[in-house]
Design brief:
With 150 residues, the protein is of the alpha+beta class. Helices cover 46% and strands 21% of the residues. It has one domain (2-149). β2 (99-107) and β3 form a beta hairpin. The chain is globular, with a radius of gyration of 15 Å.
Length: 150
């Protein structure tokens, strides 16, 4: 279990590090700045290849994830496909979003917090004092409960 949490938190830290330069774009001030920040973040995420790196790392840890969760390896592989990480995109959190869970962890000295919402189409990751909200594809929403393993 600890190994899975470590890998997952490491991947989140890599994602945040990959977009750290974008943290200087103001947020919360206006829709224009929020839109610019989301657009710039998506460009950085896509250019960095971090989504592929995360998918590849998850795929290379199928047996560890299966051991930690009690799922079969085929179920884990299917869940990784359903996560559809390539289609997670930075966005602005809707003003009516209601948080339902917060999960924290630490990897390599980097602390990160993941927040889930009633509308399971969004998650927010906080690291280095910055928030990045991601829109989650429909196929991934049923798998967000695995964050409870953190």
């Amino acid at each position: 279990m600890k190994k899975v949490v470590t890998v997952f938190m490491g991947l989140i830290a890599l994602m945040i590090i990959g977009i750290l330069a974008l943290t200087f774009i103001p947020s919360g001030g206006s829709g224009l700045f929020d839109g610019l920040k989301s657009g710039a973040t998506n460009i950085a995420l896509n250019a960095s290849g971090i989504k592929t790196k995360i998918s590849d790392t998850l795929s290379s840890n199928v047996s560890n994830i299966a051991s930690a969760t009690g799922m079969s390896e085929s179920q884990v592989r299917a869940a990784i496909v359903d996560l559809d990480l390539e289609n997670w995109n930075a966005t602005t959190l809707p003003s009516d979003a209601v948080a339902t869970g917060t999960y924290s962890g630490n990897y390599g000295g980097t602390s990160a917090t993941i927040t889930t919402y009633e509308n399971s189409g969004y998650v927010t990751i906080n690291a280095y004092g910055q928030d990045v909200t991601l829109e989650v594809p429909d196929s991934a929403q049923d798998h967000l409960w695995y964050l409870a393993y953190l």
